[in-house]
Amino acid sequence: MANHKGSEGSVKVGSDAIAELKEWSFNETADVIEDTTMGDAARTFQPSLTGASGSCSAFWDETNTAGQGALTAGAAVTLNMYPEGSASTDVYFTGSVIITSIDRSASFDGYVEVSFGWTANGAITQAAVA
Q1: What 3 state SS string does the chain have?
Q2: pLDDT score at 2
Q3: Pick from 94, 63, 67: which is nearest to 78 by CA?
Q4: Which of 32, 75, 85, 91 has CA 20 to 30 A from 130's CA?
Q5: Is residue 44 part of a domain?
Q6: 8-30: per-residue pLDDT in tens?
Q7: What is the extent of the structural domain holding 18?
Q8: Predicted confidence (pLDDT) at residue 1 exceeds the cutoff of 90
Q9: What radius of gyration, in Å, describes the C-alpha atoms of the chain?
Q10: How far is residue 46's CA from residue 91's CA, in Å, rounded to a whole number?
Q11: 34 is a domain residue
Q12: How many domains does the structure of the chain reveal?
């Protein structure tokens, strides 16, 4: 069984890295349609539409125009999430997403931080780095 450290990961907008990345996550979901009929002893369901949403957070870097700067509210971008790095044959997840939220925060004793929320516009697929 292979294990990977979170520090091996990265997220890219197309081919441009999101600088100062701290964390990322995404959640895949599947809707179900109930098809229970009279006389059934238990409820039954059929699979329906799938979806995904997620987020990433970073230390804010205004010079990262092609990474953080491309993630504006309402923007449709291709997001590539690399859990184990981006070397040849490493697995990554990719898909078209719409940026749905941006949260910024700052404290007197810390860095300015930013987080981006997104919803998939279609399927998120798994691929291997070529």
Answers
A1: CCCCCHHHCEEEECCEECCCEEEEEEEEEEEEEECCCCCCCCCCEEEEEEEEEEEEEEECCCCCCCCHHHCCCCCEEEEEEECCCCCCCCEEEEEEEEEEEEEEECCCCCCCEEEEEEEECCCCEEEECC
A2: 79
A3: 94
A4: 75
A5: no
A6: 999 999 999 999 999 999 999 99
A7: 6-23+51-128
A8: no
A9: 18
A10: 30
A11: no
A12: 1
70 neighbors 16 (Cβ within 8 angstroms): yes
Q: How many CA atoms lie within 13 A of 70 on its CB side?
A: 18
Quote the tokens at residue 19: 């600088």
- 């987020």: which residue's tokens? 55
The pLDDT assigned to 46 comes to 98
Any domain includes 36: no
Closest C-alpha to 118, from 8, 32, 29, 25: 25
